[in-house]
Design brief:
With 127 residues, this protein is mostly helical. The protein is 76% helix and 0% strand. The chain contains five helices and no strands. Helix 1 packs antiparallel against helix 2. The longest helix has 29 residues. The protein is globular and about 50 Å long.
C-alpha cells in the first residue's frame, strides 16, 4: 500500500478517535451511565481507531524507511498514543473533587493545543 493510503488512514481514524473520546466525555458528564449500548459503541470506536492509528503509523514508518534507532519524535507520539488510549479511564473517574467544572474548558483548550503541536510537527517533518 502507498504512503498516501497510510497517511489518510492514520488521519481519518485520528478523527474517529477524537470523536469517540468526545462522545465518552459527554457520556460520563451528562450522566447517561444507564445507556450501556451507547458506551459499547463508543468504546468500540475508540478501540478500533486506536488499533488502526497504530498499524497505519507503523506502516508510515516502514514507508518512510526510518532506520532502526528511531528518532525521538516517534517515541513521543507513541507515549501520546498510550496516554490517549488510557484516557477513558480518566474520563470515567469523578474528577469533580479534584478539578471544578470551571477548569474543564482550560483542559480542553490545552488538549487542543497539544493536538495542534503534534499536527504542526508532523507537517514540518513531511509526515
Amino acid at each position: 500500500m502507498s504512503y498516501d493510503f497510510y497517511r489518510i488512514l492514520h488521519l481519518i481514524f485520528l478523527f474517529f478517535f477524537f470523536l469517540s473520546l468526545g462522545g465518552l466525555w459527554l457520556f460520563y458528564n451528562l450522566d447517561t451511565t444507564g445507556n450501556k449500548k451507547l458506551k459499547k459503541i463508543l468504546m468500540g470506536i475508540h478501540g478500533l481507531s486506536l488499533f488502526v492509528i497504530f498499524v497505519a503509523g507503523f506502516g508510515l514508518i516502514a514507508k518512510l524507511k526510518i532506520p532502526s534507532p528511531w528518532p525521538f519524535w516517534i517515541y513521543i507520539k507513541m507515549l501520546i498514543w498510550l496516554f490517549l488510549g488510557l484516557s477513558p479511564i480518566f474520563l470515567k473517574r469523578d474528577w469533580s473533587k479534584i478539578l471544578s467544572k470551571k477548569w474543564s474548558p482550560l483542559i480542553s483548550l490545552g488538549l487542543f493545543f497539544v493536538l495542534i503541536i503534534v499536527a504542526v510537527t508532523a507537517v514540518r517533518l513531511k509526515y
